[in-house]
Write a structure and sequence with these properties.
This protein is mostly helical. The chain has helices at about 5-10, 10-20, 30-40, 45-55, 60-65, 80-90, 100-105, 115-135.
Length: about 150
């Protein structure tokens, strides 16, 4: 890591990380899938590594993790997961979105308003964390035996 932002402003990082504890409406496995997908879109190697491991701990099946980049072409994901992943992609790529209202209306067919707000906080926090990790040069530590 080029700049140790964790150490320099640990309170801000703790605040950002605490969002994950403030979104009880979203089940852990779905949080993991959303965090991982956002990190894949943003190209954050550190976060992809971290959230892949967290997803496995949350009992997300390996096949879902393998197919997450192509979730739209897969039949492995539930309607709820697909709606959340579509929302996560839309919020992450907000500047490319033609009609965010359409996405929100579709999401509200599957999720409550509380769940939509919680899901959006997860996506926003993950985007912020990705940008910090990428900007300051975080890389995953190898767990592969030499």
């Amino acid at each position: 890591m080029a700049v140790n932002y964790f150490e320099i402003n640990s309170e801000a990082i703790k605040s950002l990380l605490s969002i994950k504890k403030q979104v009880p409406a979203i089940e852990e496995s779905l949080k993991c899938l959303v965090e991982l997908r956002v990190s894949q879109i943003n190209g954050c190697a550190y976060c992809v590594d971290l959230h892949s491991r967290e997803a496995r701990k949350a009992d997300v099946h390996q096949q879902k993790l393998d197919c997450l980049p192509v979730w739209r072409e897969s039949s492995l994901f539930s309607e709820r997961e697909c709606a959340a992943l579509a929302w996560a992609e839309g919020v992450t790529k907000i500047s490319e979105e033609a009609d965010p209202d359409d996405h929100l209306n579709r999401l509200l067919e599957t999720f409550t308003e509380k769940e939509v707000v919680d899901l959006t906080f997860i996506v926003c926090a993950m985007n912020g964390l990705n940008r910090l990790a990428i900007s300051f040069g975080d890389k995953p530590k190898s767990l592969v035996p030499a």
